[in-house]
Design brief:
The complex is a heterodimer of chains A (441) and B (309). With 441 residues, chain A is mainly alpha-helical. Chain A contains 18 helices and six strands. In chain A, helix 9 packs across helix 17, helix 14 runs parallel beside helix 16 and helix 17 packs across helix 18. Chain B has 309 residues and is of the alpha/beta class. In chain B, the strands form three sheets. Chain B has a six-stranded mixed β-sheet with strand order 6-7-8-3-9-10, with helices on both faces. In chain B, strands 2-1-4-5 form a four-stranded antiparallel β-sheet, covered by helices on one side. In chain B, strands 12-13-11-14 form a four-stranded antiparallel β-sheet, with helices on one face. The chains are: A mainly alpha (441), B alpha/beta (309).
């Protein structure tokens, strides 16, 4: 046992002292927050420039009320100038573009006859917003022509926000669901990244011992199994430490950044959503957005999620890194690892895809449930499901399966590892690996 | 207990390949035991079994009266042929780590390392990384790490590779000193002159089988051909050679002397003795040179292997 401790200690220190670990740990949170701030800053800058859009309305249907200026887009009525003159002006002047509404007999034809001219191709958001405006106007016209009173229609418009409950008394809504998806996705994705980064690190460390030929000296003192486990646990500890430091750093930096630069971190996250959707969310919630989100995040089972993240990280990492260790032992150098890497990467990536594809739509659907129990994908998929509330017996089953598989995989990997670390020369095939499994002692 | 290590009827298979076939070796306490054989004969397999890196399929291994078990790793020091150290780890830290893996406490390991580092005059390397050292320097560190925990049994596989002649001499002396202090040494090498210099007993393994073992002198006696190098000052060399041929096998000389003597290799027949040869020679002239050709380790190695094929 004390030998295992020695190995863990060495592996941990070797990993933590490594320059790339220090850079990754301390620089990447700064980079992440910095990049976020930069993107936000650029987006703000980009939006600050007011877009001047002119329109020529030959149909006579539209009025200034249909084109209300927003913060970033201003509209001007150029109908008086005529189409040709307007186009010329826009081409020469400092305008974003010209909307040409021709005269047509029917609204249906008009709907597809409107044109937009600009020097550069226009942004999607601008076009979407123009289309919405036109559609709304034309629909109103149509309703009018049917003799339906617009006032009544408007008065009859009712917003509904279905409050969702489950039987453990948790309340949710669409916004909260979005948050849960986000938190789950981040946790699952982070786990995959950690498993990949630290798994390859275990593999490299095995290859290093093999190529430097120290391995034969070490295994004359300790069992290969101890060496492998020491490596895996040492790297897992380094990974947890890095994760912890990241958490603390990101918290500190974002607190400092938001107070110093006045950058609203939450706004940063949601800035990508189309403005209208955001507006709807705001209205539906009927309270300050920032407050709401913080409140909702806090109401998630955070402690449970944290504990489960640690468990699934360790379980998933042990499972995968024992395979990485076996690969490292089987080959002589890193270039030979590729043929064996694919079968390891596949389930990891599959886990993330399945998670994104199914959990978001239906966190308790059969596919999501299935993959949150298969040990090779469960760490990722289950973490994505956890924010939506997973019953304890499902968790227990998934965790037990993961534990059993992990023990089994470590046992198998140790067999390959034991033989592989002393084999040099020929690049092994899967058949060779199978043969090694059967070697005695 | 006469033997420190007794290997009895060890068999080891790798899949369909039999690496060791019923090999038995007894290593006397306090001896330097040469484990010889061509490449791929099974030496490394045997050494790895002694080190419990792999296990024998059958057979028994007794170390100092006890069946070999994991607790014995502290009693064995092993310098593999293919060896190395962590390149980016500092010499001192690395030596401490490896010593602790062999069961020494940190304080004890430090104390002993200081002694050895002073002895080899390499204390200045303590804080250096292995990648900053030359190959020979790293080998010295490796040697220290192997012997630091003062094991009963030391296994050296090609210990001199990578050393210049001066350092090789230094290491050879250290090995003999360790033996004098009571350690038992298994020594595997292809350098036959060092076998000659250092080994008390040898075993020869070829194609997974032990084909020869015993005291080096006994084996030499087995392999002696009763051939003598002869140098004779005589007036009539042709006549002497012709009459020698009647009683003995006479071969051309494979050596040179200082004068113009008649030089021959003479092999005794089954019926005659060295004395008869000598008296015949003295009757025909003045004997300048008369030496028995004793087979060296190299000859024995080649002959035994050829015979086995």
């Amino acid at each position: 046992m004390s030998k295992l401790k020695l190995i863990i200690e060495r592996e941990f220190i070797a990993k933590v002292r490594n320059k790339s670990f220090l850079i990754m740990t301390f620089l990447s949170p700064i980079l992440m927050v910095g990049m976020g701030a930069l993107v936000f800053f650029l987006m703000k800058k980009n939006d600050e420039k007011v877009k001047e859009i002119v329109y020529v309305d030959n149909s006579g249907l539209f009025s200034k009320d249909d084109f209300i200026d927003s913060k970033t887009v201003h509209y001007q009525d150029f109908t008086a100038l005529g189409v040709d003159e307007t186009k010329k002006k826009v081409e020469e002047g400092d305008y974003y573009g010209a909307l040409i509404i021709p005269k047509q007999d029917s609204l249906e034809i008009l709907a597809n006859a409107i044109e937009f001219y600009s020097k550069d191709s226009p942004g999607m958001t601008v076009m979407n917003s123009l289309e919405t405006k036109i559609e709304r106007k034309l629909r109103n016209e149509k309703l009018n022509s049917f003799g339906i009173d617009l006032e009544k229609i408007n008065a009859s418009r009712i917003q509904s926000d279905i409050k969702m409950f489950n039987f453990s008394g948790e309340e949710s809504s669409k916004l909260i669901n979005g948050l849960k998806v986000g938190v789950g996705a981040i946790a699952g994705y982070l786990l995959m990244m950690f498993v990949m980064i630290y798994g390859t690190s275990v593999m490299r460390s095995v290859i290093e011992e093999k190529t430097s030929r120290i391995v034969e000296i070490i295994v004359s003192s300790v069992k290969p199994y101890q060496l492998m486990m020491g490596k895996i646990i040492g790297n897992a500890s380094a990974g947890l430490l890095q994760f912890l430091i990241w958490g603390i750093l990101i918290f500190i930096i974002s607190t400092v950044a938001s107070s110093v630069f006045g950058i609203d971190m939450v706004e940063m996250q949601t800035a990508k959503l189309p403005a209208e959707q955001l507006e709807a969310a705001k209205q539906a919630a009927g309270m300050d957005k920032m407050q709401l989100i913080i409140q909702e995040i806090l109401s998630l089972p955070l402690l449970k999620m944290f504990v489960l993240f640690i468990f699934y990280f360790l379980g998933g990492f042990m499972l995968y890194s024992s395979m990485f260790a076996a690969i490292g032992a089987a080959v002589d150098n890193e270039t030979d690892t590729q043929q064996f890497m694919l079968p390891i990467m596949m389930p990891l990536i599959l886990g993330v895809y399945v998670g994104f594809a199914t959990v978001m739509n239906d966190p308790h659907g059969s596919i999501a449930v299935l993959f949150s129990h298969i040990p090779f994908t469960s760490p990722i998929v289950m973490l994505m499901r956890v924010p939506f509330g997973v019953s304890w017996y499902e968790l227990a089953l998934s965790m037990t399966l993961l534990l059993i598989t992990f023990v089994l995989m470590v046992w198998l990997a140790a067999k390959i590892y034991r033989v592989g670390i002393l084999m040099y020369g020929k690049k092994p095939t899967y058949k060779d690996l199978y043969k090694w499994l059967k070697y005695k002692g | 207990m006469k033997n420190l290590l007794e290997i009895n009827n060890v068999v080891k298979n790798y899949g369909d390949f039999r690496a060791l076939n019923d090999v038995s070796i007894h290593v006397p306490k306090g001896s330097v035991y040469g484990l010889l054989g061509p490449n791929g004969a099974g030496k490394t397999s045997l050494i790895r079994i002694i080190n419990q890196i792999t296990m024998a399929d059958s057979g028994s291994i007794i170390l100092d009266g006890e069946t070999l078990s994991p607790k014995h790793t502290a009693d064995i020091g092993y310098l593999p042929e293919e060896r190395g150290l962590y390149k980016s780890m500092k010499v001192g830290e690395q030596a401490l780590y490896l010593a602790q893996l062999k069961g020494l406490s940190k304080a004890e390991a430090k104390k002993r390392l200081k002694y050895w580092f002073d002895k080899f005059d390499i204390s200045a390397w303590w804080g250096k990384k292995i990648e900053e050292l030359s190959k020979g320097m790293a080998q010295k560190v490796q040697f220290i790490v192997t012997v630091l925990h003062e094991p009963k049994l030391l296994i050296f596989d090609e210990p001199f590779s990578g050393f210049d002649p001066i350092n090789a001499q230094l290491i050879a002396q250290e090995i003999l000193q360790l033996r004098d202090k009571g350690a038992t040494i298994i020594f595997s090498t292809h350098r036959m002159e060092s076998v000659e210099e250092m080994c008390d007993e040898i075993a020869l393994i070829d194609k997974s089988n032990k084909i020869l073992d015993g005291k080096l002198n006994d084996i030499k006696r087995q392999f002696r051909t009763h051939t003598f190098q002869v140098g004779l000052n005589t007036l009539n060399p042709k006549e002497v050679e012709a009459s020698l041929k009647q009683n003995f096998d006479v071969l051309p000389a494979d050596f040179k002397l200082l004068g113009n003597e008649l030089t021959l290799n003479v092999k005794l027949g089954k019926t005659n003795s060295a004395n008869e040869l000598l008296s015949f020679l003295t009757s025909r002239g003045e004997v300048q040179h008369f030496v028995e050709l004793i087979p060296n380790a190299n000859d024995i190695f080649i002959q035994a292997i050829n015979r086995n094929n």
